[in-house]
Design goal:
Layout: E1 2-6, E2 13-17, E3 54-57, E4 68-74, E5 102-107, H1 121-139, E6 146-153, E7 165-171, H2 176-191, H3 197-208, E8 212-215, E9 219-222, E10 233-237, H4 249-269, E11 275-281, E12 296-300, H5 307-312, E13 316-317, H6 321-331
Parallel strand pairs: 2-13
Antiparallel strand pairs: 1-2, 3-4, 4-5, 5-7, 6-7, 6-11, 8-9, 9-10, 10-12, 11-12
Helix pairs in contact: 1-4, 4-6
The structure holds zinc ion (2 copies).
One zinc ion binds near residues 39, 41 and 112.
Length: about 350
């Protein structure tokens, strides 16, 4: 039995086809990579990367040597770079433009095997603080109109290096997915007296509860109604802001508690599954900033898109989000560190 579902914000469609390909035993797995002696992201090999942009390190240790806990470097093979030139259209315009922008890599720990799902909350908090710092910095660069922060984990995610790292790309354009979200949020606000579409969706999910995975005062996590991927989740901070760059310390802290916990729930259901973690944003001074509400999408890559999905642009999801949410809730561990005075559930 299958069903078309439309995303309430973007208007994009997905097909939920229960049972079509729900064969968890055949889902692709992430092979464990033994430490290669020449991993450029491991502590001690700093000279094999471009010079660091920022690092959280033990006081007194010099840049580009060991002693760091989180380290950001320019991507050696950038999708976009500040000095990009296109000889055909040096000033931009037309259908070819310079690939100008920024592309950085945030190495999540000096240890080769330190998967985000397995790191201590304190380390993940430092990683997410670094992502916020880099997004703030790159959002202020001239000509930047949007940012995408992401993690590729595992071969099915597009990842090429095992050593866990996040990436931050700053673009001179509004990419199509963000444009669809902005257009949808604009339409919704116009019809509903300025109400934020993302907050309306959170309210609806809180009310219906069937797709909710974690409902907490600062950040909620749910399986989106029109999920295109099995066990996909969206984490939305309750407070309105246009980017992770604008997150408060307590939001960063809560995100650092939730993301590894949700990843562990996913991995309990789909052992060693590849995934992407994705967060789009717009600079706070951009005209689009008022209508955008940042969030983090966690997308397990358990099923490869087939010819129909590539050909139609409609993802086919074999696990209804209501089923996914229930299974993920059952698998949540409750080992979240809750500090004094913060009675988050
Ligand atoms: Zn390594
Ligand atoms: Zn909002």
């Amino acid at each position: 039995m299958s069903e078309f579902r439309q995303d309430p914000i973007t208007g994009r469609w997905a097909i939920v086809a229960e049972g079509r390909a729900a064969r968890p035993n055949e889902y692709a797995r992430l092979p464990r990579s033994p430490t290669p002696p020449d991993c450029p992201f491991c502590a001690g090999n700093e000279s094999r990367t471009p010079p660091e942009v920022s690092a959280y390190r033990t006081a007194g240790t010099p840049a580009n040597g060991p002693g760091w806990s989180v380290r950001t470097i320019p991507n050696k093979f950038p999708t976009l770079a500040p000095d990009a030139r296109s000889p055909e259209s040096p000033r931009g315009g037309g259908n070819r433009r310079p690939g100008a922008g920024h592309h950085e890599v945030v190495i999540v720990s000096p240890s080769h095997a330190g998967l985000l799902a397995e790191l201590a909350t304190g380390q993940v908090r430092e990683v997410f603080r670094m992502v916020r710092e880099r997004l703030r910095s790159l959002s202020r660069e001239p000509g930047i109109r949007s940012t995408v922060a992401f993690e590729n984990s595992g071969p099915e995610s597009g990842g090429t290096l095992f050593h866990p790292h996040l990436q931050v790309v700053a673009l001179p354009e509004i990419p199509p997915t963000l444009a669809d979200e902005l257009a949808g949020a604009g339409r919704y606000a116009h019809r509903h007296g300025g109400v934020c579409a993302f907050e309306a969706e959170v309210a609806r999910e809180r009310e219906e509860t069937v797709r909710m995975v974690v409902d907490s005062p600062k950040i909620v996590a749910y399986a989106p109604f029109a999920s295109g991927h099995p066990y996909e989740m969206r984490l939305v901070p309750v407070r309105h802001a246009p980017s992770w760059a604008e997150a408060t310390d307590s939001e960063v802290e809560r995100l650092a508690e939730l993301v590894p916990r949700l990843l562990r729930a996913v991995r309990d259901r789909l052992p060693d599954v590849s995934y992407n973690l994705i967060s789009r944003g717009v600079p706070p001074t951009a005209p689009e900033a008022r209508s955008y509400h940042w969030h983090v999408d966690l997308v397990p890559r358990a099923v490869r898109p087939d010819g129909f999905e590539v050909g139609s642009g409609i993802p086919v999801n074999p696990v209804p989000p209501e089923v996914a949410a229930e299974e993920l809730r059952e698998r949540l561990d409750h080992s979240v560190e809750v500090g004094p005075g913060r009675p988050d559930p």
